Amino acid sequence: MIKVSNKAKSxxxxxxxSRKLNPDQCIRLSVPPAWKGEGDFGLVxxxxxxSDSIIEFNNKKILLIDADLTNQxxxxxxxxxxxxFTLDIY
Length: 90
Prior knowledge:
Blueprint: E1 3-4, H1 6-18, E2 25-30, E3 42-47, E4 53-57, E5 60-65, H2 67-72, E6 76-81, E7 84-89
Parallel strand pairs: 1-6
Antiparallel strand pairs: 2-3, 4-5, 6-7
């Protein structure tokens, strides 16, 4: 399973708290071709999926990751450094 640092979890929680999301929505880790923005990955607002892995922080769901992506990124670390999210893949 992808590792998510406490700094990244805290920032994801802050983002969720600052937005008025529907109860069935959360932040999703997305990669191309679904992610069309700059860089190799992005974070988007998305509905929960049946096969999603869910990352929690303080008993609150903060991040969704598709099951296939979870397997591909099993040795990865998501962090928040210098004002941005980073994804280190090993």
